[in-house]
Design goal:
Blueprint: E1 14-17, H1 27-54, H2 61-89, E2 94-96, H3 97-130, H4 135-138, H5 141-166, E3 176-177, H6 184-189, H7 196-229, H8 234-263, H9 269-293, H10 296-312
Parallel strand pairs: 1-3
Antiparallel strand pairs: 1-2
Helix pairs in contact: 1-2, 1-9, 2-3, 2-9, 3-5, 3-7, 3-8, 5-7, 8-9
Length: about 325
């Protein structure tokens, strides 16, 4: 156990994750909720990845990005949810110092990567609708790979910076984190160091991540809307908008839940935890549903898989 009276972060060997505060009789129900939703996250995203990989009709830039989005959603849920489920039923509710560092690093990595991948998907839709004749030239396989690799690189750099400033602090005040996973804000609250530099780094990273991704998405859709409105037939306009509706739904869901998490008043930690559950569990559960229900190609690919299973049976 870490020494609570120590004045150096290296003396802390583990942290206690308080988790979501519910009455003891509701622990089993909370565990069941996490289990069911996490199972749906696994099923939905693994199914989406499998369909994209196996169906040659989905070998396009849009589905390449969508497959990576499913991998990211699956990954950041897996980084947090299994440990949270164990702690719901456990009396100790501890996480090692190294485990906490790894959890925050991976959570930040996938969260930032997702923001940049969604921006790349907006650019893809912009090229597809505004420059359809040049689509295959501009959205080459190599460019798609570079965009995804660049997204992961941005996530990796921001995560390194985040954990460097977070875990350079001293934790002599407490080792009890009032959350169900290791996040920078509740960790800062148990530090006895000056957190001004941490706040500045977090703010700078938020600006550098959110501003360019939002600008790319907004500008892309401004051009898309302008182009679509010039289409004379209502059927043509409907078809063009339908290719963007799923992406807009996912973007709205992501930024809506993340805003809810980080704009929740700090004096209401329980509400912030509920908001985090929405982002970590329900967003990755809903993303595959949004794309499968509103996308004809994905629905056709799913029907093909179901039909093959029926034939085999």
């Amino acid at each position: 156990m870490g020494d609570q009276g120590g004045d150096n972060h290296s003396e802390v060997t583990d942290f206690v994750l308080v988790g979501i505060r519910v009455r003891p009789e509701f622990h089993s129900l909370l565990f069941l909720l996490f289990l069911i939703v996490y199972w749906m996250v696994l099923l939905g995203n693994l199914s989406m990845i499998g369909i994209i990989v196996t169906d040659p009709r989905l070998n396009t830039p849009m589905y390449f990005f969508l497959g990576n989005l499913s991998i990211i959603d699956l990954s950041y849920s897996t980084v947090i949810v299994p440990k949270a489920m164990v702690n719901i039923l456990s009396q100790k509710k501890t996480i090692s110092f190294a485990g906490c560092v790894a959890q925050l690093f991976l959570y930040a990595l996938f969260m930032v990567t997702e923001a940049f991948v969604l921006a790349a998907m907006a650019y893809d839709r912009f090229i597809a609708i505004c420059n359809p004749l040049l689509y295959t030239v501009r959205m080459s396989r190599s460019l798609c790979i570079q965009l995804v690799a660049g997204s992961y690189l941005c996530g990796w750099v921001s995560s390194i910076l985040q954990i460097s400033v977070t875990f350079s602090m001293s934790f002599c005040a407490s080792r009890v984190i009032d959350h169900f996973y290791c996040d920078s804000n509740p960790i800062e609250k148990i530090s006895c160091s000056n957190v001004f530099m941490n706040k500045m780094v977090s703010l700078s990273l938020a600006i550098l991540i959110i501003l360019p991704t939002i600008v790319v998405i907004v500008v892309s859709y401004m051009y898309i809307v302008s182009t679509v409105l010039k289409i004379r037939s209502s059927e043509g306009r409907k078809k063009a908008f339908s290719t963007c509706s799923s992406h807009l739904g996912v973007v709205s869901l992501l930024y809506g839940t993340v805003s809810f998490v980080y704009l929740t008043p700090p004096n209401n930690p329980e509400l912030r935890k509920v908001a985090s559950v929405c982002y970590i569990l329900f967003t990755p559960m809903l993303n595959p549903l949004i794309y499968s229900l509103r996308n004809k190609d994905v629905k056709d690919a799913m029907r093909k898989v179901v039909w093959k299973k029926k034939v085999l049976l």
